[in-house]
Specification:
Strand order of the largest sheet: 4-5-6-7
Number of domains: 2
Keywords: Membrane, TPR repeat, Transmembrane, Transmembrane helix
Largest sheet: 4 strands, antiparallel
Strand content: 15-25%
Number of helices: 8
Shape: elongated
Distance between the termini: 87 Å
Mean pLDDT: 91
Radius of gyration: 35 Å
Low-confidence stretches: none
InterPro entries: TPR-like_helical_dom_sf, TPR_rpt
Amino acid sequence: MPLKVNIKTIGKRLQTHVTIKDGSKVVFKTTFGALILEHCLSGSGKYWVANFANSSHEDSGKTFIFSLPCGEQIFEGYTEGGFIQSFQFTDDDRLFAKYQYGLFELDFAGKLVERRAYLQKMLEEAGTDLIYSADWYLQEYDYSPEAMQKMCDAMDRAFNKLIHEYHGKTWGASALRVKGELLEKLGKDEEALQAYTDALYLNGKVGVKNKAKAIYRRLGIEQGTYQPTRLVKIFACENDISSNEQKQRQQQEREDFFLENAKRQRQQVLAERHREKYAKTHPPKVNKVMNRLLRALIVLSGIALVYLVLSGG
């Protein structure tokens, strides 16, 4: 008989109770201080893996792997890669995790077996996660000039994708910061200064003011000589328009929701008033029957009384 996993969550306490049974025998039982997201039992019944949502408990956001025959915890922590959508085991108990970039194998220490394949896919996609994971990619390639140049190119692609995204200016400034820092490392101060100037135009708090000032001093030119490019000005303008449109849509959606909710509540109040009014003017059928019986009894009692009087009894 295959093992059966029973999951019980307590939302108010942000807890998950897990019981794994072999028939009526409990082979594994534990409680986590967070709500479960995804879990998977290996076909052999030897391993069980699960990851959890954020909470105030130490289990927050972690992945756990257990060996069921001995009830031993093999792994507790944060796995490599981004958000895991699901888990699956192969017939020979190899663990795979599904990410937004596809299915990748994880070892039982939470590490990607084919890390470079994952990083390459992330580089090609050039999404927002690449912006804050750039250092991970570069460390894997020892910050080689080739790797840094590839990342600069990827930051350009990421930047271009953000033009119509909500908070696009904030993300765009971060992408330009990464690009500028790498250009500095590559000895391309002029290009780095332009990237910093563009980043500051989008977000004055992006954290590159001092870096820009240092390059100005190195180049021996007056502060503020560099100006934002036409491209970044267009980006800012287009993103403001898109962001305002999104805000308006969200505001309209909220207003529609509250209006619809108010209508439902109004309908409920009117329906309740109608029921109360109807109940007053239309007694229940049971009450009607009882009233008829009562009236009949009164009539019969009157007839009986008259009979007694007339009979002298």
